[in-house]
Amino acid sequence: MVPLDDRVKLLAYRVIDWVKTKKLVLELQTIPAANKNNMKIERSNKNPIISPDGNKDWESVATFNPSVASDGNVTHIVYRAVSPEQKVGDAKLELSTIGHAVSNDGVAFTDREQLIKPEHDWEKFGCEDPRITKFGDRYFIFYTALSRYPFSADGIKIGVASRKILRI
Fold this sequence. Notes:
Strand 6 and strand 7 (about 110-115) form a beta hairpin. The strands form 3 sheets. A 4-stranded antiparallel beta sheet has the order 4-5-6-7, with no helix packed on it. The protein starts with 8 loop residues before the first strand and ends in a 5-residue tail after the last strand. Helix content is about 0%, strand content about 50%. The longest helix has 4 residues, at about 20. The chain is mainly β. It is built from 1 helix and 10 strands.
């Protein structure tokens, strides 16, 4: 196990304001490493760090359920992004895909892009809930892939994407 040092911050993301806005946005909370034993959590005044972008159809309805990984210089965030209702096969649904953004400080994320979208029958009805980790020189992103609609247990698959550089 790698020990934490005083430069490390714990990044905690949670969903806020669903009831008020009917849009899901992400909030950031940090715990400075010096206070990790006291576990004092302070709300960041930079919230929300990711919210729906009306200029990008693929993430204009909602952005939530993030996961982060850092290469030491850049923090990568992957998140579930939801589009407006569209026709997929015979179904009409708000389609989930995986978004990606980068940050130099873990708070201000830029260069947002759609990283993973349905391309195969086993993920035809959405790609959701990403989890990212860096192992060696590669990033691995695990996600929920939906192959049936209406959704059912036998239509839920696990997808994984891997690459050395986390940019399209």
